[in-house]
Amino acid sequence: MDTMLKTLQAGLPNLGLDLDETTQKTLCAFGEAVVEQNKVMNLTAITDPEQVAKLHLLDSLSVLTLRDLRGKRVIDVGCGAGFPGVPLKIACPEMELTLLDSLGKRMNWLESVLPGLGVTANCITARAEEAVSGCREQYDYATSRAVARLNILLELTAPYVKVGGAVLAMKGTAAMEELAEAKNAISRLGLKLEKVAEFPVDGTAHTVIVLRKVAHTPPQYPRRYAKIKQMPL
Fold first, then answer.
1. Does the pTM exceed 0.90?
2. Cα 76 to chain center, whole Å?
3. To bridge 60 with a disulfide, which of 6, 84, 182, 229 should be the other Cys (CB 3.0-4.6 Å)?
């Protein structure tokens, strides 16, 4: 954990974040748990402690530089191993977190490991386009990382967000290309581009695209995933 913790501590000032030592250690304990579980389950291709700190923990925490999540309802759509949702909850325990993923094994693992870290989260095993029927427009923010291209991702996330909230989409080097591609989806789903924030990591661009919800998402969205993929907005 030493390498991971030192890398995390070195990176936090670059994000303007000041987290206490207990929080830092809990973040690294989660990073270690992911690496350990990855030995028996495909959770991540990133297992080097330094890279886990940079590409998983600090990358996830970049969202906190854009939004105050205290007292907010946040859903992490397609959460995978728990990024960015779990690090955000560890750093901001006052937020209410829902983790959503279609792979039951991942969700079962998260449900088993999070209580030991003192992390409370509502874990839902379901497809994003199906689960929304029970909680449409009930969240302040929807986060997502490495799930789909933006024009597809927005149809899966925007319906969860209440008017006045935002989709916080974490993207890589193709962020601006995907943003241009998603213009039609943005307008159709009741969204408006608010900000594009870049956070360089080891010379590579990591981007958070903030899309504010300015109008209700029409009830016909989201469509079935096969249709979304076949004919993106």
1. yes
2. 5
3. 84
